[in-house]
């Protein structure tokens, strides 16, 4: 298994090279300027479209604009907002949030462009189940450029579909299932993670069997409710910690800027090991892209089902996604984690003396070269203040101590985590630490006597809520995690289905859906993914391969999308699109205004 994770790290090093991020930013800026800062149109005209002002029963498509946006948002507003942001802040530091904002802003133009392209070339042969996305853009678009290029379009579209399936299984499925199982067992240790996996697979399976209309109906109700629930909880936390918010906003900007612009690297404090500007930039970009999927090519498959005869109209609606997902939901999560102090929390317990670091031994007691562990396996008790937040130590709790070793180029510091897990000792009440060996040519040294909770993803966000209002994380974050994850898995199952249909035909839909539900069970299995680094490696793969496939497609067909966009805006300014009276909110949410 170690060789697999090493391979993943090497592959992601290529997929997420700094130059890839620079290219993505430049493409986002290109379409921002080319569209005349379409972000403004998304926040004005886009809101009117979503509210149902332009919904028409006779337009081609299956669901209204609101349901299409909800379906796409259910794929983006998910555990990337709860767990992904926490990973970014815990590893990249506060500066990562600044680059999440940048991606959220340019991502609005990216979404508009890729969705407009998809709407221009979507397939509505089956009006009850339209098909769209970059694969159809390639198939029809290359043939439109020149008939001789039609085979090229089919091949490029097929390659994109393969990346969709990779992303659907990793980020759209396994990342979600693993995080739900993780936070559920953290708060309710008596629940077997596989039980959580069974429940998720059944709920997702029952929903996706009904196709895009059932998916639209479910997400149209679920997305507004889950967003409101989570946002209200976050606002309560920020209201209590309001005094820390201004300093956190300043820290986000200062640690997110490069040194030549006055930025400063985030220093290590508590559980945070420090971070360079480059590391903050990397984590902010990666987590924002994973969360809002701008430029990834996923959302166009949901928007292609919208009932409209104006392709650009749905593109403008899609521009709202990164705003809602990143600039609102992700920002609130980041401020909760930062203002509560969860990101640089202190030790959960402290040894009476500094632990020593010795060579790890094999089953026969022989030392293993280059493998090091602490010389203590006893577990110091948590003080009362910490117990109110995180309870007493329990079996399978993950923890770490901080050791000094070689300098880490990513953080700019010589500090590292040496991880362990709480296990039962000789009796049920006797708890010990089973340490994972730290690999190094020379022995590291303990940095301090503290022992820290190893909080990964959604567990860190839940802990942040609990630090402010004990018990709040147990209910708010756990419930939000379940709702966010299920909605995301539902949407990504649909994206994978569209890719499957393009590659293999409709006969493969049912086998694909069954395999998708099985993957939920696999990801829920304990000990499959053991750390935030492994979690990132899995999700970065899916997002990375889709970006590599979709960005060139966007650049090739971008001129067509921009011509259509400016023509539509000219007509809008000229008063050609009058619309009608707004339907009731209930009818819009349930899609009754287009039925």
How would you describe this structure to a colleague?
The chain is α+β, with helices and mostly antiparallel strands and 595 residues long. It has two domains: 14-248 and 285-342 and 467-584, Amino acid/polyamine transporter I, CATH 1.20.1740; 349-454, no CATH class. It is built from 21 helices and nine strands. The chain has helices spanning 2-15, 18-34, 39-50, 65-76, 79-92, 95-120, 134-145, 150-187, 193-208, 211-240, 245-256, 277-292, 299-303, 311-318, 320-339, 384-390, 458-468, 472-504, 509-524, 532-573, 585-590, and strands at residues 349-350, 357-361, 367-374, 398-408, 413-424, 431-435, 438-439, 445-446, 450-453. Strands 1, 4, 5, 6, 8 and 9 form a six-stranded antiparallel β-sheet that branches. Strands 2-3-7 form a three-stranded antiparallel β-sheet, with no helix packed on it. Strand 2 (357-361) and strand 3 form a beta hairpin. Helix 18 (472-504) packs antiparallel against helix 19 (509-524). The chain starts with a helix and ends in a 5-residue tail after the last helix. 53% of the residues are buried. The model has no long low-confidence stretch (mean pLDDT 86).
């Amino acid at each position: 298994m170690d060789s697999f994770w090493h391979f993943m790290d090497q592959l992601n090093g290529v997929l997420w090279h700094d130059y890839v991020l620079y290219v993505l930013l430049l493409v986002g800026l290109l379409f921002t300027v080319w569209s005349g800062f379409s972000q403004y149109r998304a926040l004005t005209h886009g809101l009117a479209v979503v509210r149902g002002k332009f919904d028409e029963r006779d337009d081609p498509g299956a669901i209204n604009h609101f349901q299409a946006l909800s379906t796409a948002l259910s794929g983006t507003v998910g555990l990337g907002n709860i767990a992904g942001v926490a990973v970014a802040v815990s590893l990249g530091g506060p500066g990562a949030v600044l680059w999440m904002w940048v991606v959220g802003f340019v991502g609005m133009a990216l979404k508009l462009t890729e969705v407009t392209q998809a709407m221009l070339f979507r397939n509505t042969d089956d009006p009850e189940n339209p098909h769209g996305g970059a694969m159809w853009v390639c198939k029809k678009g290359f043939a439109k450029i020149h008939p001789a290029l039609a085979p090229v379009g089919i091949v490029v579209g097929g390659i994109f579909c393969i990346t969709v399936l990779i992303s659907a299984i990793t980020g759209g499925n396994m990342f979600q299932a693993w995080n739900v199982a993780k936070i559920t067992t953290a708060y309710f240790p008596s629940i077997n993670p596989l039980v959580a996996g069974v429940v998720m697979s059944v709920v997702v399976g029952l929903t996706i069997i009904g196709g895009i209309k059932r998916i639209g109906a479910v997400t149209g109700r679920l997305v507004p409710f889950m967003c409101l629930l989570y946002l209200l909880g976050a606002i309560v936390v920020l209201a209590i910690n309001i005094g820390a918010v201004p300093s956190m906003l300043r820290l986000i900007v200062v640690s997110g800027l490069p040194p030549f612009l006055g930025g400063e690297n985030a220093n290590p404090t508590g559980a945070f090991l420090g971070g360079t500007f480059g590391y903050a930039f990397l984590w902010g970009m990666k987590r924002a892209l994973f969360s809002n999927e701008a430029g990834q090519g996923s959302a166009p498959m949901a928007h292609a089902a919208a009932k409209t005869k104006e392709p650009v109209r749905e593109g403008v609606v899609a521009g709202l996604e990164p705003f809602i997902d990143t600039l609102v939901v992700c920002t609130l999560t980041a401020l909760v984690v930062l203002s509560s102090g969860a990101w640089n929390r202190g030790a959960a317990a402290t040894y009476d003396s500094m632990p020593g670091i010795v060579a790890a031994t094999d089953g026969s007691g022989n030392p293993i070269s280059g493998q090091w562990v602490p010389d203590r396996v006893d577990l110091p008790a948590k003080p009362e203040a910490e117990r109110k937040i995180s309870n007493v130590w329990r079996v399978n709790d993950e923890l770490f101590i901080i050791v000094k070793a070689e300098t880490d180029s990513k953080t700019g510091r010589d500090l590292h985590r040496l991880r362990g897990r709480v296990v039962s000792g000789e009796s049920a009440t006797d708890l010990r630490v089973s340490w994972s060996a730290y690999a190094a040519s020379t022995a590291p040294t303990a940095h301090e006597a503290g022992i820290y909770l190893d909080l990964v993803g959604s567990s860190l966000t839940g802990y942040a809520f609990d630090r402010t209002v004990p018990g709040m994380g147990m209910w708010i974050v756990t419930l939000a995690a379940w709702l966010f994850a299920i909605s995301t898995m539902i949407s990504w199952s649909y994206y994978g289905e569209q890719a499957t249909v393009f590659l293999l035909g409709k006969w493969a839909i049912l086998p694909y859906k069954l395999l998708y539900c099985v993957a939920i069970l696999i990801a829920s299995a304990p000990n499959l993914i053991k750390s935030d680094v492994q979690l990132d490696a899995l999700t970065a793969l899916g997002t990375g391969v889709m970006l590599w496939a979709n960005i060139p497609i966007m650049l090739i067909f971008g001129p067509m999308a921009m011509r259509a966009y400016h023509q539509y805006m000219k007509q809008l300014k000229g008063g050609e699109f009058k619309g009608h009276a707004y339907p009731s909110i209930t009818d819009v949410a349930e899609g009754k205004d287009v039925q």
